[in-house]
Amino acid sequence: MHVLHIVGWYPNHLKPFETPFIERHVRALDPLCSNTVWQLDVRQGDRWSLHRRSLKADRTVILSTPLRRWLLLEWLATGLILWAWLTRDRRRHYDVVNFHIAYPNCARLGLLRRVMRRPMVITEHWSIYRLGFKSGAKGLGRIRRIFHLGVPLITVSRALADDILTFAGPPSPPVHLVANAVDLDVFAPPVAGAPHTSREPGRFFAIATWRYPKRPVVLVETIALLRKMGRDASLRIAGGGAELPAIEEAIARTGMRGHVTLIGQTTPEAAAEEMRRSHALLHASDYETFSAVCAEALCCGTPVVASHVGGIREYLTPALGLPVMENAPDAWAAAIDRDWDRLLALSPAVLSEAIRPLVDARLVAERYAAVLRSVAGERGTNTTPR
Fold first, then answer.
1. What are the CA-CA distances from residue 121 to residues 152, 181, 283, 374 (Å)?
2. What tens digit of pLDDT does each residue of 192-223 get?
3. What is the model's pTM?
4. CA–CA separation, 275 vs 373, rounded Å?
């Protein structure tokens, strides 16, 4: 089966760490499908620019524009996809077209179906549906209609599916749940006899692209409170994003320069090592459609302390860490202080085994490929793993 993945967000030379969870979804399919990735994206910027250098995708066209009107951006996105389709290598046949992130690339989905004449499916990760795109504009009706055409929808959690169906209203598309994929060769519990086989008390780790709805300042303030309570707590923060200045301000304001360290962007292997050494992974957020980093930590045998929101609620139980009901530093500090010893006592092997069936990239790929085969129907030219 040959799958054309059309993505807006993907690791690229402008943002090498952009949405790695989408890339992992696609790459998980490699043993089961023949995959081609086109990154076709219209994004707002200060001026017109065109970037065609591909970092991870087979074909990349990123168009930046100073235009702000939704309708114009939608038509630019549609035109870009039609141009890419009409100039494609005609020797390559695609059994199904998989759009990742519906808006704006799917804003004219009916037209794209008529021109491309291939079965289609949408895979969605975006949390914006819960907020109604933060707008009351008439253009919301055009976004809702994307999900009224009967094109099957794949989401990474039940919470995200419910958000989209509530936002769009009836008629609802067929919905399939396929969790984020985790590479268990990288994110694995410590090996007996290897360095750092036990977690270090008081050493916490956090990693994300730090932008809303993430709440990293809560984590910095939590460490400050824990230290006032007599706990020898420290925090290492990986990743970049728009919230970095706020994190730096919070570190200075709370006097935590010697106890909260910003380590910047890091490789998956380095992140996994940080997780294995940590007392727990900390993840404060107002919402998450899934949270791949929480699942990765659990795969490493590290407990997770996270906000009890969105898709996280579907797998994080007290047996795997500590769900926190309120995003307030005092609530976080009190919860961690109370469960300090219990978190350390949780078995890495038990934590890893509990989450693996949900996120093991091989199992995720099987579920994902089954959906794509059902969408492709009789068009599939190779319905068995290659």
1. 5, 18, 31, 10
2. 666 656 899 999 999 999 999 999 999 999 99
3. 0.91
4. 36
